[in-house]
Write a structure and sequence with these properties.
Elements: H1 5-11, H2 17-25, H3 27-38, H4 50-58, H5 77-101, H6 124-156, H7 167-170, H8 174-181, H9 184-188
Helix pairs in contact: 5-6
Length: 189
């Protein structure tokens, strides 16, 4: 499963970094869901039927589940519109950030130390550059996953759990950041 994208990339001579990255990372959640099944961590609602299991493994994101009925929450027109709006919003945010930051090589704050200096991590401008880079990665992840979530709602007919839940601004601790709010797809797997 993890090897599958490489012959595809070579055969089609794909050179765009975003396409290559997308193809290389796509099998990872499916692989994690297979491991989840092998070691008995599959959610209960998935084990009701083969159809539920295939749907669970076939989509990259986890379904939002009603706590009372233990069934996937179906997508609605409102949830689809919300997902597409979120995708467009993050598309615009990413576009503005990239337009501003590409000319300065993604480092708008100049540092007083050379890059090879061991104490560069204590430079306030370097910390600001790192915070900005982390924010961009977070927005980019939300952008790509919200696009995928919109497609899943249309094709799969169910709502999905958020993959990134505003980790930089809303985390209460480092463990909340890494365990609950950052890239939940990988952490659940």
């Amino acid at each position: 499963m993890l090897y599958l994208p490489f012959p595809f990339i070579e055969f089609f001579d794909l050179r765009a970094v975003y396409l290559r990255l997308g193809l290389i990372t796509a099998p990872l959640p499916v692989t994690l869901k297979c491991l989840e099944a092998m070691y008995g961590f599959t959610p209960d609602y998935v084990t009701r039927s083969l159809r539920e299991f295939v749907i669970h493994c076939g989509f990259i994101q986890y379904a939002r589940v009603d706590p009372k009925t233990k069934r996937r929450i179906p997508s609605t027109l409102a949830s689809i519109v919300d997902g597409v709006t979120n995708y467009i919003k993050h598309s615009l945010i990413n576009g503005v950030l990239f337009s501003i930051l590409i000319p300065c090589a993604f480092m708008p704050f100049s540092t007083s130390r050379p890059d090879t200096d061991i104490f560069i991590a204590t430079d306030i401008n370097q910390l600001l550059n790192n915070l900005l880079a982390a924010t961009m990665v977070s927005f980019s992840l939300v952008y790509s996953i919200s696009g995928v979530a919109s497609i899943i709602q249309l094709l799969g007919g169910f709502q999905t759990e958020p993959a990134v839940d505003n980790p930089i601004c809303c985390s209460s601790s480092p463990s909340d950041f890494w365990g609950n709010r950052w890239n939940a797809i990988i952490h659940r797997g």
